[in-house]
Prior knowledge:
The protein is of the alpha+beta class. The chain has helices at about 1-20, 25-40, 70-75, 130-140, 220-235, 250-260, 260-265, 270, 320-330, 330-335; strands at about 45-55, 60-65, 95, 100-105, 115-120, 145-150, 165-170, 210, 280-285, 290-295, 300, 305, 315. The protein has ten helices and 13 strands.
Amino acid sequence: DNNNNNNMxxxxxxxxxxxxxxxxxxxxxxxxxxxxxxxSGALVPLTTRTLYVQEHGTRxxxxxxxxxxRKEQDKKEKPAHFNPFLPPEPNLTVCQVGSAHxxxxxxxxxxxxHLLLVTRVFEAQTLPLTLADFAATIELxxxxxxxxxxxxxxxxxxxxxxxxxxxxxxxxxxECQPPEVPIEHFFSREAPGYQESPGIQTALPFQxxxxxxxxxxxxxxxxxxHSLYMRMLRELRVDTANSSNDNKDSNSxxxxxxxxxxxxxxxxxxxxxxxxxxxxxxxxxxxxxxxxVRRTTEDIEGIPVNAISFAAVLLVRNQEQKDFxxxxxxxxxxxxxxxxxxxxx
Length: 345
């Protein structure tokens, strides 16, 4: 019986690595792969306790880590420049998305059904997202309400140098509904910027650019979303001058990477050592809005701050860090991790 179960799991894993995303199938496949990965030990959810911080009359979730021994042990056992995405673990692979991306489970997840959309060959996390990246991400968003987010560089919280967009289903925290994303408490339709150009949400105390993208289903248009993203980069003065593929489309992206020598596909160590582009950033978008935040520091008092933090969901390691958040306030932490200057960009 054990052999039969192992054979069935191996067969399922093999098909997951080769099957192409089909409309309406993503989250069912995610549940199936997650169940098998949990049973095999490939998926290791981090144990957390959800606490809350009260700010501006609203409760926001703060997750406190309780057990991370397995993740720390995994780091010690892997080579210094190990790339978990080249290739990703078969037991964590959900499906292919287009010709250039794979959808995989986040091995050490805090949020349930946390997906990573990774490039099939090495692309640096410090370079701008391409049209192909947006097209693949939109395919996942079509499967249901979800938040896509991206950590543009180490200062923005990127822990892996291999490009990966992250996606989590909505709502993020059922106790804080509505809205589906906690930061939406501070979004206003009257704020400057509605699709025509990047604007801001005046209630947010950190440097950012924002735009609604639900009018005429703009969120489904990869070219329009990529163009909006590039405008936000320029307006926030995120330096992409050292990038050679700022505006390449999906075809040019595929052709340029497919011809790359094998040794370049595993050059994570070299790319990780390259200078970060000035003004690292976090990008967040849903089927309703897109926001970019300029970053100046990776963490605050040891509290890791990445894109999901700017959805108003913080992760702390201990009670001392939670006490710090209580004293400083959620937006106090985010403002310090973003651009703390009061000067206009």
